[in-house]
Amino acid sequence: MERTDIRNFCIIAHIDHGKSTLADRLLELTGTVSAREMTEQVLDAMDLERERGVTIKASAVRMNYTTQNGHGYEINLIDTPGHVDFSYEVSRALQACEGAVLVVDATQGIEAQTLANLFLALDADLEIIPVVNKIDLPAARPDEVAEEIEELLGIDAADVIQISAKTGVNVEAVLEAVVERVPPPKGDVTLPLRALVFDSHYDSYKGVIAYVRVVEGVLDMSEPLLMMATGAIAEPIEIGIFSPNMKPSGRLEAGEVGYVATGLKTVRDARVGDTITVRSRAAAEALPGYVAVKPMVFAGLYPTENEDYDLLRDALDKLQLNDASLVFEPETSQALNFGFRCGFLGLFHMDIIQERLEREYDLDIIATAPSVEYEIEMRNTGEVRVIDSPAQLPDEAEIEEIREPWMRIQIFTPTDYIGPIMDLVTKRRGEYVSTEYLDPRRVMLNYTIPLAELIVDFYDRLKSISRGYASLDYHFEGYRTGNLAKLDILINHQPVDALALIVHQDAAYHKGQALVSKLKEAIPRQQFEVPIQAAMGKKVISRANVKALRKDVLAKCYGGDITRKRKLLEKQKKGKKRMKMVGQVELPQEAFMTLLKLDEG
Fold first, then answer.
1. Of 86, 143, 142, whose CA–CA distance to 113 is shortest?
2. Cis, peptide link before residue 244, omega less than 30° from 0
3. What are the tens digits of pLDDT across the range 24-41?
4. Residue 417: how many CB atoms within 10 A of its CB?
5. What CATH code is assigned to 374-482?
6. How far apart are CA 202 and CA 57, in angstroms?
7. How far apart, in whole angstroms, are the C-alpha atoms of residue 100 and residue 215?
8. pLDDT exceeding 90 applies to what percent of the chain?
9. What fold does the segment set 3-181 form as a domain?
10. 565 and 556 in contact (C-beta within 8 Å)?
11. Lowest-confidence range among 244-248, 320-324, 440-444?
12. How many CA atoms lie within 13 A of 32 on its CB side?
């Protein structure tokens, strides 16, 4: 195939605007997937993606398309996620393309992630093809949405393609536009090989399988390969394309997208963003990779059985290969023994990783409450420490000030829900910045808010009070000094480091009370009474007792002297007291999850 006949493009959109459905229609239209093999969301191969109806991983596929005048093209499509937590997947996919199809829902219009993903595509200097989807719905307003796109991009509303990906109406116009408007890839076949690794996964037979976009040169089976960042050398086992399953082709040339099975057994040797070259004729310099992602949310993952620690480490290693935005390091906890402190892009990302560990690697794990990174300025030395767990917080007397991360958020919402949304953000210590009316019915609210208030259940509550219509996008703004303190939870007079929180002092009493009440319900009753306390420093601010399970020792006493009953009760009391001194309280996973479900009000 001539390089002028190759097109590389991705589909970007807000979550649930129809990216994966459009990808299905394109695969059908080009005959890449036969009618017999066709299922909904073909490219969403993971069970989790199908169950939740969201794309989690970007996935690549090659299609062959013949235009109406009989000219054949090779089209490489990368379907991307729409959820804000997976924007890193999108930014990586964009590096492998020359064009982007921007899909907008005809009923919802432009939303938060539409804009965020569009700006990523413009930064990568891609050709944008705007498409309005779901024109078959009764509430669709395609012409109005096309005008919104015209205002945003400066593209004539008449040039915006109107389609229904579900029914297949006008989908062929998208392929025609890709062929006409997206430029063919640049790159010289005669230069030394340079291939960008934009994703990867681990296969127990073929080792690390790297998904690559060949920028220059030819990738074939003839010579050993060199990973330029790690210096690892690999003998290629298989080279091929996605159609949509992996299909060996033996060779990839400049401009093409495919995969190479490297045979590397150590996960760290092939990183996302690395450049692959040929060992004997290595390229002079690597391609600019990706900016290392900065995790926003941190939590501890611990195996319920201590002997599964090594299995958990291997599983995290392999997951990190498939998801470069996951970071982790070992940590220990008094309550949970050995585990890992993991960094995630958001709460949904954390939820997906936890579920993938349990499903794909058959592990039983406990996750601690999520936290964010704080900056601590020390009183005597002036040193600034960064901590991502409340357990690392130094003694109060040593701290000059605590700084917490703040985010700038944009909320797109119909005007009917402005009041409840403003109320929600204000309760979470949000600070108002501005309001912009997009049209008479829709508005964009700009706020700044502490990240700690955003990560727990903000998104769920936003969706519930706006009946699902509001959408959210957020960006890191900076650190600010806050009136913060550590809230310790003591169970049976022992502090449990995994349940500690860093909270704003104004909310400490309310949070402590709510948490103690929730824990009282979550912790099962023992043979002895278990006190649960919330404390700030030396001061206990809330307490509740989990009542002891008691055997009825008086069951056999029919009447008789009261002293006999007293004697039996005293004997039981002594046994309980002794048991309390040696007894241990087992904490179920629900106890840690209570931290995510503290009600407002």
1. 86
2. yes
3. 888 888 877 666 555 555
4. 19
5. 3.30.70.240
6. 14
7. 18
8. 1
9. Rossmann fold (3.40.50)
10. no
11. 320-324
12. 29
